[in-house]
Each structure stands twice: as C-alpha cells, then as structure tokens.
Specification:
By secondary structure, this protein is an alpha+beta fold. Among the domains are: about 35 residues, no CATH class; about 70 residues, Nucleic acid-binding proteins (OB fold (Dihydrolipoamide Acetyltransferase, E2P), Beta Barrel), CATH 2.40.50. It is built from 4 helices and 7 strands. The strands form 2 sheets. Strands 3-4-5-7-6 form a 5-stranded mixed beta barrel. It has a two-stranded antiparallel sheet with strand order 1-2. The radius of gyration is 29 Å and the shape is elongated. The N and C termini lie far apart (about 90 Å).
C-alpha cells in the first residue's frame, strides 16, 4: 500500500471515504468495472533513495538504536537502519563500550543489499580508509618526506660553510 512499514490495516484507518489521494492506476478490469490503484507507486521509496545516494565506502552519520551482543543497529535516516557487526567496531573500542542508545556515530558503508534492504556498516574500515588518505596526503607533500642522507649532509655542509664565512 505504501512504503511505510506499519501494517496496511493501520494505514487504512488514516484514509476516509471521499478523501483525495495521489495514486497510480495499476490495472483496469472493464468486465468487473474495477480499477486497481497503487499509493505506493505514487511516492518515492525512502530506502531506494538512500541507497542511491550512498555507495560502498561512504561515511555516514547515524544514531545508535539498539546494542546487542552481535552488534549495533544504527538509525541512518527515517526508516533506514544499518547494522554494525561487533567485528567491525573501532580498533580502540573492541567491546563496544562507547555505544549507547541515542548516541551519535559515524561509520562507513561496506555493503548495501537492495533485495534484502540491508546496510552493513564498519568503523574499522572507516579508520583504515582515513589512515590511507592521511598517508597519501603525507607522501604527496614534498616538505613532509624525509630527505636522503646525501641531502642532509649537503645542507649541513652549506650551513657550516656559511657559519665559517661569517667569522
């Protein structure tokens, strides 16, 4: 009926006879004088929109919804949840002591299963990605790279020669 996870019986109570709604015609049966309408097809699916906007490797913020021995359920958006397995916790917090219901957390998307509508998350992968990025930035900066022994000796000799010339 709609993308709302509530049972259709509960949703039917929110509609009244004569109320205007936007719907899509699904089928026509002239013999039975019936028209099948779809409310669901007239509105975008929040889960699909979220999955389209977030690819594997993206960092996403969320709120801890539930903590269990297997991992943490994280609310990523309205009606969108992700799961953070215990093995994907931070290397600094292997037991998950930092996770409290209602607490904010940022993690990395490691898998999006569109058929099962599941999102798997990882903090460990996010930390590794951040470390790799820092190393790339460090290596790309010529001022931060270490000098060769020859360069260091040459610089030391130049300074020493400069100091002798001042005397």
């Amino acid at each position: 009926m709609t993308w709302d996870p509530n049972p259709p019986e509960d949703l039917l109570k929110s509609y009244q006879r004569g109320q205007e709604v936007e719907a899509v015609v699904l089928s026509l049966d002239p013999e039975k004088e019936r028209i099948s309408l779809g409310l669901k097809q007239a509105t975008p699916d929040a889960w699909t929109q979220w999955a389209d906007a977030h690819a594997k490797g993206d960092s996403v913020p969320g709120v801890v919804k539930e903590v269990s021995p297997a991992g943490v359920v994280i609310q990523l958006a309205d009606e969108i949840e992700g799961f953070l397995r215990k093995s994907e916790y931070s290397r600094d917090d292997r037991d998950g002591a930092d996770f409290k219901v209602g607490g904010e957390v940022t993690s990395q998307v490691i898998q999006v299963d569109r058929q099962k509508r599941k999102v798997m998350l990882s903090i460990k992968s996010m930390e590794i990605s951040q470390e790799r990025q820092s190393l790339k930035e460090y290596a790309a900066d010529p001022g931060s790279a270490t000098s060769s022994l020859g360069e260091l000796l040459s610089q030391a000799l130049e300074r020493q020669a400069g100091d002798l010339g001042k005397r």
